[in-house]
Amino acid sequence: MSSNPTGLIAILRGLTPQEAPAVGRTLYRAGIRTLEIPLNSPDPLESIRRMRDDLPDDARVGAGTVLTRAQVTEVAEAGGELIVSPNANTEVIAATLSLGLASYPGVATPSEAFAALGAGATALKIFPSETVGIAGMKAWASVLPAGTSLLPVGGVDDKTLTPWLEAGAAGAGIGSWLYKPGRSVEEIAARADSLVAVWHAHAARK
């Protein structure tokens, strides 16, 4: 079990309320403490409630694919603590912050990145990360405010994570490589352990 939190976000698209506690505990034990349940999953708000109730306080549970202010409110009422979106909707960012939640909007251009930061975004989700690329992220970092957290999402696994971290990413969101419906908790645990090992190996070299 890892006692050090990582910058990794588990994207649990398709998760059901029935499996939410077991999957959450599995990822938590591996050291992945930020868990995102996209709203296009089955009964996502109930999954958020169950996972939040089941996990220790140092875990963060939230929602992904959040597109409207109303959805932000629903997630907050379910106990969610972070809002992840595929786009940089400043109204969603403002609603998120007004409820005391962390805001992780998706950005694909420097203009979107600056607009999201201007609206108060907590961190920036680089999406789709394959399109922006590592060179693109490094170029962004040269002009964005120092300390901006950049998190690539899309195509990240235990083989591609290291180059992103070495280029300055603060973490990454990992989706179907880590979790997809029907995958056993044993396999999820093995994949999570592999990701966390990559994270700690990078941290040890810094």
What is the mean predicted local confidence, pLDDT? 96
CATH class: Alpha Beta
Beta-strand percentage range: 15-25%
Largest sheet: 6 strands, parallel
CATH H-level name... which superfamily? Aldolase class I
The structural class is: alpha/beta
CA radius of gyration is: 16 Å
Morphology call: globular
- Give the topology string: H per helix, E per strand: EHEHEHEHEEHEHEHEH
Number of domains: 1
Proper CATH architecture: Alpha-Beta Barrel
Distance, first to last CA: 22 Å
What is the count of DSSP helices, taking H or I runs of 4+ residues? 8
Residue share in helix = 40-55%
DSSP E strands, number = 9
Report the CATH topology name: TIM Barrel
Strand order of the largest sheet: 5-4-3-2-1-9
Low-pLDDT sequence parts: none
Draw up the topology in text.
Layout: E1 8-11, H1 20-30, E2 34-38, H2 44-54, E3 60-64, H3 69-77, E4 82-84, H4 90-98, E5 102-104, E6 106-107, H5 110-118, E7 124-126, H6 129-141, E8 150-152, H7 161-166, E9 172-174, H8 185-205
Parallel strand pairs: 1-2, 1-9, 2-3, 3-4, 4-5, 6-7, 7-8
Helix pairs in contact: 1-2, 1-8
